[in-house]
Specification:
The chain is an all-alpha fold and 209 residues long. The protein contains nine helices and no strands. It comes from Paenibacillus terricola.
Length: 209
Amino acid sequence: MTIRKLFFLFWSSMAVGAVTCTVLGLALQFTDQSYGFLKVEETGYNALMMAISGLMIGVFAMMGFFAYLTVNYIALSIFRQKYLWTMLQGYTSLFATFALGYMLYGERERLSNWLYWVLPTALAIGSIVVAYFKAKQTNRSAFVPTVFLMFVVTVLEAWPSINGETNAVSVIFMITPLFICNAFQIMWLHRLVGSANEKTDSANVAKSV
């Protein structure tokens, strides 16, 4: 991973976050006229603020992504056997799915009655889809770590919006761009690190996630 490739991933993630937040935010505003930053109804102002928020979310997703890569590298050194770390990630992802639903169920009066089952289900399906394409482009061992990244890491990154004094719309506005940014990063990682024919340690680590 060169500095040039790192900067590409950094700025492109910010761009993905900005575009996603702008499109999603405008869609939410047109379907709910009360939705807007600082209660301002002007579409142009809100679009600008949504784009700026998307840039920050892209940076936040990038930080979470590299934090996971660091944890993954350390865990592989600690567990020695790769399948132990993979199993732990798999069990954690499964547990997090039910835990998220249970937590949202307890907040259903504040966050809406449907979010407690729609959000975990949609996030789990999306994570599996991304993991499928990741494994197809690299190797099968990348499936579980990708699911872990797409579900557990995304939920941790979006936790302030889930656990704070927010509503369902705010949760969706936060978690959707984070998920898309993480998907963009994980699908580009193996392309930036090296081709499928390279045998370097860094390429192998990258292709395992």
